[in-house]
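stage 2 :: seqdesign
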């Protein structure tokens, strides 16, 4: 092994250790599936956004706040309501009489981790205020463009759409979320009990106030996930076949967009980094494919009426496409 390869291996191992530390630290506060925490971390490493669809009280806010603290980011929370305006999120220019000038009052979107709580309770005009920020990492206020800080991650929550007082997210906005995740209820009685035990130990409702960051150089981890992880052409073709198959599936009205394929690729590379590999394997793709693709599909009405789901369609597609068995772990020198 050359000196350069040795240095790359050491850097990868160091990054993977930091990822393990983040997952372990979040797991000490949040009681839940470690795979879920890994997926949240993968999306953050891939510079993506996450949509949680679940019922209230399952720990979505706690997970978001804990994760924000441990990656060393600034955390803000916006409660989406029917009367929320775009300016309440982005900010506005205010006239200051003492200076005879307008001053920009920045909204909560100028942060590292934004929790958009119950995003589907706000009308579409307010939801659309996030579109430019989520895609281009910038906002335009009265014709002036302002860049957002890096990293910028949106963790949005929404109640199941059949609940009253909600507005469905437009397809363009759904497509901007890298992953759609569901937390679910505690998996066992032991997990349920552990939540109560930890609550007694905290002696306060918010245990995140005094948490110290685990990864101060989180942007460096993002750069490694983007540049240091090799993807064999057969894996790229595998991802492309999955995306294209969703458009041709008989149950699907509108399939996944090319952005969906890019999201699946980036999340797979991030998972490889978390697992201390400098190359992607088919299992990385399979682990994240339902979370990265299902929310981008629109099923035929008769399928929806029969109780079919987007996740089931994606699983059918993955089963129908053989995973590559011959691929190189890294390019030959």
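stage 2 :: out
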């Amino acid at each position: 092994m050359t000196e350069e390869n040795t240095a790359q291996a050491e850097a990868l191992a160091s990054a993977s250790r930091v990822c393990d530390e983040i997952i372990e630290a979040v797991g000490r506060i949040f009681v839940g599936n470690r795979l879920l925490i890994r997926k949240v971390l993968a999306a953050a490493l891939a510079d993506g956004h996450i949509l949680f669809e679940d019922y209230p009280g399952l720990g979505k806010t706690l997970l978001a706040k804990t994760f924000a603290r441990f990656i060393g980011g600034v955390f803000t929370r916006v409660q989406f309501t029917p009367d929320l305006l775009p300016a309440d999120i982005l900010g506005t220019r205010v006239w200051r009489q003492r200076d005879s000038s307008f001053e920009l009052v920045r909204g909560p979107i100028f942060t590292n981790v934004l929790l958009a709580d119950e995003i589907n309770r706000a009308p579409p005009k307010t939801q659309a205020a996030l579109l430019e920020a989520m895609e281009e990492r910038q906002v335009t206020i009265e014709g002036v463009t302002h860049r957002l800080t890096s990293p910028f991650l949106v963790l949005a929550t929404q109640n199941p759409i059949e609940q009253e007082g909600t507005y469905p997210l437009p397809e363009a906005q759904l497509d901007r979320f890298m992953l759609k995740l569901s937390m679910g209820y505690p998996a066992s009685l032991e997990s349920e009990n552990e939540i109560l035990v930890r609550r007694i130990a905290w002696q306060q409702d918010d245990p995140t106030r005094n948490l110290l960051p685990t990864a101060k150089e989180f942007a460096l981890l993002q750069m490694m996930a983007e540049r240091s992880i090799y993807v064999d052409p057969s894996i790229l073709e595998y991802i492309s076949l999955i995306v294209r198959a969703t458009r041709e599936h008989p149950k699907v009205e509108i399939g996944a967009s090319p952005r969906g394929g890019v999201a699946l690729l980036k999340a797979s590379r991030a998972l490889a980094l978390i697992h201390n590999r400098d190359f992607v394997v088919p299992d990385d793709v399979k682990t994240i494919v339902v979370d990265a693709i299902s929310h981008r599909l629109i099923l035929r009405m008769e399928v929806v009426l029969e109780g079919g789901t987007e996740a089931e369609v994606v699983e059918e597609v993955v089963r129908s496409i053989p995973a590559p068995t011959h691929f190189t772990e890294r390019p030959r020198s």
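stage 3 :: structure notes
- The domain at 229-333 is CATH 1.10.8.80 (Helicase, Ruva Protein; domain 3).
- The chain has a mean pLDDT of 86.
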